[in-house]
Protein 1
Amino acid sequence: MEYEKTAQPVKAGNIRISFELNGVLQTIETDPALRLLDLLREQLQMRGTKISCGIGRCGACSVLLDGHVVNACLVLAYQIDGSHVTTIEGLQIDGEPDLLQQCFLEEGGFQCGYCTPGMIMAAKALLDENPSPSQSEIIEALSGNLCRCTGYGGIIRAVERYKLEKAKKGSVL
């Protein structure tokens, strides 16, 4: 990743960070202690990442940081300098839901939808690392994400369906 060089001074107390957000290089000036969650939602208008507990217990703010699922409420702005961040908005393809998002829609992996972005990001991290997880591995990978509506059945079915759909597409190639 190349860093943008600029002669403009940084406001006192702020830092300049460069990182890739959903495949696009970003160079911004920000408070180094600003939470990634607030940076995404307020400075970069990525509102798909949800605010909930604010202390890393619910997973509603899950994003991928260099391919690993993290709670955006626990990551500070200075920590993402030079990193790759993927939010729920970064999964869509030409403005349409990707296969994992589509599986969540079709299998009822949501009700109110508040936890859904975090659930999908946690599932994506799992599936990127292990394309064919067992049901117990799915449950473990999603254990940091809370849902008060679905009972998790639709969420687990969505991840299992994605696994099957990807396997079908792989056998066609």
Protein 2
Amino acid sequence: MPLTQVSFAVEATPAAVRGARHRISAAVRSWAGQYDDELRFRLELVASELLTNGLVHAGGPLTVEVTLEHDLVVIGVLDGGTALPRPRAAGTDDERGRGLALTEALCLFQGAEHTATGKRCWAVLATASAPGPAAEDTPGSAQDGAAPDVARWSLTTAGQRLLAHLSPATPGHGEPCP
């Protein structure tokens, strides 16, 4: 599948966030074809969290970037704020503080980075279920009585290209960003 990409500006208002969320969903649907309700839910919730983060914490105009490469959707939101999102514990009655946890739970991976004019928060979602080993075939699975292993990632050539697209400012291969 060829690289498919769109970028657009959004006002930092609740109504504009709602419209941008639907525009993101419509773009992905037009590129990937029909997709199930679960992907639509994850896509719109993650987009809403990224956009709302920019609205609440940075104000000012936002720029949305959406890319579909292979079976992965990358959503990026750029804003003028310089403070990167930080996880925090949310109390039972708190109205804020769950966005990063929600985004992390719904995405393959997500992050934030400084840009020349502020920051970029991004998330990657799969448009299709990724095949993987069955739990009973995984060493350390609950079946043999041991605690399950943490997820393991292998990086393909396509994955390296995607990561280079996500973080072109990464200082070097394998080096953490400052």
Protein 3
Amino acid sequence: MNQFSESQHEASDTPCTDEAWSLLSTSAIDSIAKYDAYRLAIELEGLAPKIRANISEPLYSMRNLFTSWEHLVRRMESDWKLPGQYPISAYINDLDSRSRLEIDMGKLNDEAQAVLSPLLAELDIRFTRESVPDESGELRPWLNPSSGAEPHGFWLRKPRNHPW
């Protein structure tokens, strides 16, 4: 069994993320809260004041980034049997979440990284196991990382079986 055991959180749809969050120290939680405040400021930029007033949490909080990545991995492992539709735009959003994790984990303190890095590594291994290189470029027309960078790494893989 892996470090973040799914058996302990059967009712959750993101048991590994839930377990990792339960292991975070106060210092790690504070570090994540600082990241989330930074992220919220970015997301609020350019929004009308009426809209800004109604948003108190970032859409792309650190936890939401992990949740998004774990959701994708679990869907792939279930051969897409989890409830709900999954359009290709959701796949692209989940890849974007993974790219943000790669960049933004460095903004966290050592304590947070010590707990979350093994979770990220585990989810990455599981993603790789359930995906194959997209050698034919089947998904290439949809790949446009929000960072503007050329697609690489996970962006160049596709699920073994996909619902599109």
Protein 4
Amino acid sequence: MSEQRDPTASADQGARAFIPDSSTLHRRRRRAVRQFALCVIVLVPWTVYLAVSLPDRFEARYWPLVWVGFDIMLLVSLAGAGAAFWLRRQALVPLSFVAATLLVCDAWFDVSLNVGRGDVWGSVASAVLVELPLALLLVLRARRVLKVSARLAWQRLGLTGEPPPLYRMPLFVALASSRVTRSDVEDGKGGEGDQCDKGEQDGKGDKDA
């Protein structure tokens, strides 16, 4: 008789090979936090500077190139999200968020650049009836895919009950590479920082011993 194999075993072994250890995740987390903090710190004075220095009127060169290029980016993101949905690929999630962001930007620029002009109401109608509802639909669809994927990963980890909301759910790559307990994860305390801190405390305890 031929030996029966779990079809998910090879996939699990392959996934573990790409999961970094807790110390590597901790370094990456700290580096990413510093990068985000730097962006915020730089953007605040830059925004204030633009608010006080930009002129009320400005004649832009290559105006058609600006909008045609923007619409091409929007078209590519929407086409990519549609293709990912058709092929049932996880790329649907980031592509949907990109397309939704571009749609909101499109609505903002259309309305704000036409304030004080006669065709501003056409831009408002386009934003309210087309661009913003489509952006909301893309976000809700991506959120639904994220929740389904999170529930499947939750079950694969052997956790009971329903997973916490997305804003409280830890990264699964951090859970897979740490020694966090199941009760901590189910209580929403299994964040990457908590796990790394536990690892560091365990390491200090070993050294003291």
